[in-house]
Task: structure prediction
Amino acid sequence: MHRTVRALLSAAVAALSATTVLVGLSAGPAQAETYDHVPLTAWSYTDKAQPSTPNPDPSGDFLIGSSNDAAGLKHTGRAYFTFDLTPLKGQVLHRVTFYTDEQTVNDCSQVAPIEVWRTKSVSSTTTWQHPPKELELLAERSYGKGVICPGAYLGVDMIPAIQAAFARGEKTLSIEVRIRVADEGDRRVGRTMSQARMSYAVNHAPKVSGLKLAYPDGRCGTLEKHPSAGTWNRVQATVTDADPDDHPWIVYAFWPVDHPDQRKESSSSLDLSGLEDGTVVAWTAQGRDYDDAGPWGKTCYFTVDTTAPATKPIVSSKTYPSEDYPGTGGPGVPGTFVFDAAGDVETVGFDWSPMDGSLVQPVTANHPGGRAKVTITPRRWGSGRIEVAARDAAGNRGPWVEYQYQVRNSAPFAEVEVNGVGLTSHIKLSSNLAEVSAFGYAVDGGPETRVPAVDGKATGDLVFDSTGYKNVVSRAYAGKKMIGSETDQVYVTDAPRVVSDEFNWPNSPVEGVPGSFAFTPRTTDVVSYLYQFDDGSERSIDAGPDGKATLTWTPDRSGYFTITVSSVDGSGNRSLPAQESFSVISLRPTVSVSSYGAHVGDPISVLAYSDLPNAVALVYSFDGGPQQTADGSFAFFDVVATHSGDSVLKVWAKLDDGTLSPPTEQTIHLDSAPKVASKGPFGEDAVMERPVSFTFTAVQEGATTFRYTVGSAYDDADHPQQTVPVDPDGTATITYDVPDRWGDVTVVVASLTGDGTVSDTNTFSVSVRNPNVAVTNPWPADLPGEGTGGVGIPGQFGFSGYDLNEVTTKFLWRVNDGPVQEVEYDPWAWETVASYTPDRAGDNTLYVQREFTDGSRSPLVTVAFRVGNEVATG
Result:
């Protein structure tokens, strides 16, 4: 079968086919119908040309109507099909379709009257002479002219026929397909059809059972005898679905018995608001899935009672009678608490809470208006409290009463020394109470061991039989009376104890200096140890008669290490692993070089330090030069390369005895590309429409020429390769006129020697900065109409720059042919304001540029504006 899932559940929920649902709990999500085909148990087609020949369960297509074969013999055919309806029994039928389709048609211009009949069953002896009896005409179709031909689809809804078959008690359904008798002999309407099938989409409707009032009473009830229920009612039912993945849910319906027209449905609690006390309510339940609703369950009843008991219960305890310090009882000492209804017969039980965040718990009174008892065992000393409310037969709860009490600090203190599995561990017990005469202790609910107290103290032995977390319960006794207890959780492991005097914090083990590890067993019959460091190679060492072993080890490198050790007993059992981590100091100094972007002649920063405890200085040599010394175990210094290529830096730690450690060597590579420096109008950056210069400094020995390209890296242009000779000082300077656009100027340069040897290449870029002026114009020229404002009506322009504001000194501006005016640049405003009162309506032109700190000016910006005909007032 094939199923379509409309919603997904977790695997755990999906495995359930029956779920008990309480009102207030959400129901599970969806499943869908079952899709498949009705089993075809027998089929046959008959041929008038062979009237006595049966043709059971043939393969291929079938003929309806008449057609001539290759020899000219006329055949007239009908087809019969018997289907097993058993898979559909007891299910809701959403779609059942008998279908076939045309394969060949003799004459598509002719209308073929096709009939579908219900017949008697098909058998292996079905022939033209002895066909199944036609019982009921189920469908008629007219195919051929005016429809798809050939290839028309014949589909018939079978739900009414199947429902009728089930009503007759039948398990099969037989179908005949034929051309109408009057036209059956007309060869023009003959056609072949594909083997017929019957598809279906069905679903088992869910069913409910076990309806009952879950709170406050467990009965369904009858109209004559039923329980009462109040606001806190909970109804319950069990829903089942024969389709295991349909995840049904329950809908409840309820109504006053004398007002069925007030029926309501709910998927949660039954809302009794608006119903008076004494109203008899009928209720029932129905299972539903995402396709169908099942039958309603039996009808149950209850009487509405929403009036809670008015009498407050009386709470008392002999063990914990008072809230006064220092209290009574003790941790672990159970106390009985009595709830008394004080004779109020409306009270049949009590709800109570220990007020520790746990759920409210119910308890039943010994009789209406009577008492109930609960036992509470405090876990901690100090103040405790409970709250109690009376509850009636309908589940209505009266007012809460709070009872406070004090628990004496009588629990012993326990300290457990865990030595492993099967070995003797130790416990120390103590108490500050003078009346303590003995202590007891037990592991995980096992038998208690009791030891006498001497001056409030005692010790004992215990043996753990397995690894994991263990609960050790200790108790204090005054004579035979237990006066307090405490539970401690300890972790038991059989992993060996690993100790080292050298390889542990805060010691500073050094590379190449030997040390040792001591392995001590935490289980019995240890004969050897398996250990490994970070290399993953596991090794073994034999244990001595006492189960202990000592490993001598010399670290062959510095860095972070973890040793993992397991013990092995005589039977080959391996313990849990123990791990210890530690760091080993390098004999060589640590060196960090910052050479990114450095060129020949540039200082290169070096950080060097040594963790050796007896290091007093750092000694270094660069590129074979003399040794230099920096006092202390931590130093910064610079080195300067005199040539391109590789240079070697060596650094040693100088020890307090004057000897040097092994050196750390680092190769510093500087390429042979020329150094590049830029100079624009205002620093290193370029400026639009202003020249920028680049100075090349040769690094390559014997360089005679610089070969370069210059332009933007983003303009997709081919920049021509150019050359410039190297001056005697090893430099050359070029100038580039920057175009009027954003972006960059990038120089790609290499040097060449006289024999054509090319150096490494340096790609050097600078940003292009924008000197232009941005203008805020209150008289836009591009708006429709005659313009804004008017002659004599003042306004103001706003001037600003996208860039280079740090070197801007003022703005120079004029309107039309008027005089040039100046306004000082305001560095604290979004824009520098220039006030202007128009003296001419219509189109005008503003000219503006800014002046920089070097006296140069930006390109002139022209802004058209249009002054309107508004008349100045006042």
Summary: The mean pLDDT is 93. The helical segments are 11-14, 159-167. The longest strand covers residues 92-105.
